[in-house]
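Quick start: what a row looks like.
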Amino acid sequence: MDLRLPALRGLLRRPRRLLAAGAAVVVLVGAGTWTAVASDEPPPVHRSDRVMAVDGVRLDTSYFTSGTTGRRPAVLLAHGFGGSKDDVRKQAEGLARDGYAVLTWSARGFGKSTGKIGLNDPDGEVKDVSKLIDWLAKQPDVQLDKPGDPRVGVAGGSYGGAISLLAAGYDDRVDAIAPAITYWNLADALFPNGVFKKLWASIFINSGGGCANFDPQLCAMYDRVAESGKPDAAARALLQERSPSAVATHINVPTLLLQGQTDSLFPLGQADAAAKAIRANGAPVDVDWIAGGHDGGDMETSRVQARVTSWFDRYLKDDKNTDTGPAFRVTRTGGVDSTDGAALLRGASGSAYPGLENDPRTIALTGRREQSFTNPAGASPPAISALPGLGSAGGLSQLSSLGVGISLDFPGQYAAFDSKPLTQGLRITGSPTVTVHVKSTSDDAVLFGKVYDVGPGGTQQVLPSQLVTPLRVEGAEAGKDVTITLPAIDYDVQSGHHLRLVLASTDLAYSSPATPATYTVTLKSDLKVPTAPGVTTAAATLPSWVWWLPLAGAALALALLLTGRRRTASTPPDPELAEVPLQITDLSKRYAKSADRYAVRDLSFRVEKGQVLGLLGPNGAGKTTTLRMLMGLIKPDDGEIRVFGHAIRPGAPVLSRVGAFVEGAGFLPHLSGRENLELYWQATGRPPEDAHLEEALEIAGLGDALARAVRTYSQGMRQRLAIAQAMLGLPDLLILDEPTNGLDPPQIREMREVMIRYAEAGRTVIVSSHLLAEVEQSCTHLVVMDRGRLVQAGPVAEIIGSGDTLLVGLAADIPDPLVDKIAALPDVESVTRAEGGLLLRLASDDGPPSGDHPVSADQPAPGDRLVSAASPAGGAVAEGAGAVREAQGASTAEASGVALAEPATSATADAPGTALDAPVPPSLAEDPAAPSTAPGPSSAHPTHGSPTAARLLVELVRLEVPVSSVGPHRRLEDAFLTLIGGSA
């Protein structure tokens, strides 16, 4: 695992694994070479790569310049722990274009550099930086303050941030620094208040490639502390001497401190200590709390890069007109983006850095003043706060800014003290404090303090930024008063919420005593919460359309007045179609800039009340284009669409009787389902009583989920909420495009029931879908399109069993040449292989094309069946098959394995030999010469009892095709593939 921070480019770009190293030296290795690389963007950036060596260590470096010759300030860019110089290349190129000479390097033990990792050892990595500065002083394009002293700044994130602080403390040639998300005292960071931060420490070792890659002193120290679970004095001293705090009095250069709010590794207190120490030396210091950190979140890359560049412009280029930003800035969550549910960020600032204890407010805590709880054997199970190492998985700690908590405390392992609900909102900026009396059955007690934001009724317990304060209390057996400084945060507690102080005995990220013990905690003071009232949130900037939209509207109105344009009179409604939900006549739409390429061409069909119409077709058939024209989103080139007699045009009033759901709907994730629907209806401007909200919700069947936030919904619940939104106002015509997209089978069944229930009330539903099995079960009628044209329209049963297509079952497979012979028969238009047989489309004897069937509410009622010769009904050969017998002889017919039966009775319907169980149009059992009286396709198409079908059976027997059954389609999929020629 590495410590790369998500999406932080350039200066803070993915500081891999944790810190950043410096390395430099003076001597050019003989094998070192110079290369020049030009970027794709003007002006070109020249990069020179070389390997340097010092004290037996080889350091891999890159030098970036751009523009004309001449001296310029220099910047050293350091990378994060576990990374290399490649991580900061983009930042280096950007600074080079801004007029800096930029040097990057891979620290000892990382990238292509050699040596042991020393955690910024003054005799190792810090000395390397001084050697790099020596080298910069000799470059002809670097500005000098005096011989051997270049004008230079140092910047970096995490490990690299620490080296920038250390460089300023050890080398007085450094002129400005911009450290980010880093530490001031590494001992305090890894051993806070005497407690071992075991998970982060182990990630350090893992990210460095294992203990053997570290300085032996560090490796021995880690092994010792990890085994005992408790840091000793020698371990603290070793880390402190490699920390910026060791040279605090020597850091006196302009410093921009950027620290992460979602950071359990280097929390805000580390930057606070650095700011106080450097400001005490008389140097200017600005502090910026960014949204992200080592635990993930938004790293605000572009804003951070811009501010660092401005800082160097002011203090390296001496550009006094450069705005370096406020003395203190903090990024706050200003709501939620309705499109993706991400937190919206807004900046708050102050004219001075407030520190962590500014303007405290006292919050009284209630409950039992004295509480006892246990430290379990082995410190297990541990409570959960932060999850180190998972920052790159999405920033779990930032969920607290959205009101989501992932922390966990186990009963009997903590004490809790609550405040009363707040009567007004409270913004916490800094570190809350509280004093408690701790007594333990063991000599040492380890506690983990945290403050929760608890919603009304005890719901939504949120731990801000997932941060806790560990505390080791020595001599606790006799009892001891301790003041706990809780984690520094910037967090808004809403009115009606209350605060909860929790003191737990365990935490997953830290080492706790393995010996069982009982802790007794007594509250000695109220909670003091810093508020920093001088830090104010900037007003949200108005989007550009706020000012240009009114101007554009006024200009358009003036143009209309000047040109005297008048609206074209709308087409009058057709009274004869007033009760017809939809009629499409000769509809055509060409592709853009095309005279002969059509998305839809000559499309005509009609939909009646109470129908659930399935709009089918392969991709590119024109379904979506048709729906968009139906909803008035685009205009047809030719033809007409009428809804309840009114011609459709953009903004037509009749569209208020149409509800639509196309692919998906956008909801505000932090609002409940009901609140989303109410807000949507308010936006329509129609009276609330017209929404029929309860009726729509009853049809959608969401139940108690309506009171929950939409972000907690499953995909199926979101789909049903979108359907409910389309149903608001109970539109007479409901259009659904792929309503079952992404749903699992139970959810698809629920969606099917929703559509059927809606149509049962006399309304009409049009659904476009690729799930043919679902269409077959939920739709009453179908319109099949292909290449923009209508292929067929009619009731589902009619299309599935359409008389111009036969399903011929085969007792055995047949070779392709025989299939070709069947396709060449005069009565056959096409042949398609299907499961267990062949799909034959018959040539039409007479009658209109299949596509001319109007969509009708009448369902066909034929119920004849074809049965195999082995069935009980097979012994009786229908008289209507006489023509077949005469053509081939009785023995030939029997040899073919097919008999033609009378309509199946209840006895034969259940017979084991039944080949096709579905009701079909009149079969071959009927007299081919007799006129058909059944409704549906049999009256206009060649049916299975037609002369065409009879002749076909004779030809199949003559070709020695092993026919086992003959009948209509049983599946919509088969019919669909046949109708479109198998080109789905």
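That is the whole record. Residues 545-563 form the longest helix (19 residues). The first strand starts at residue 27 and ends at 28.
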